[in-house]
Write a structure and sequence with these properties.
Distance between the termini: 19 Å
Number of helices: 2
Number of strands: 0
Number of domains: 1
Largest sheet: none
Radius of gyration: 15 Å
Length: 58
């Protein structure tokens, strides 16, 4: 469950940058959003692999 907490914390940390980019047009915030989404993708892949490995081990 710690991985789920990491995902939740990452998404919540990006909220401010999403607002700055979409509502104020802040380009630097857009860069941070893209980086955060890439981190989210990588974390999601790690979780997916972990779940698959655990499922196959049983």
């Amino acid at each position: 469950m710690s991985k789920f907490s990491e995902v939740r914390d990452l998404v919540m940390s990006l909220e401010g940058d999403f607002e700055k980019f979409y509502e104020k047009g802040n380009q630097a915030a857009g860069t941070r959003v893209r980086k955060g989404m890439q981190d989210l993708k990588n974390l999601s892949q790690d979780i997916r692999k972990e779940v698959q490995d655990k499922k196959n081990a049983e």
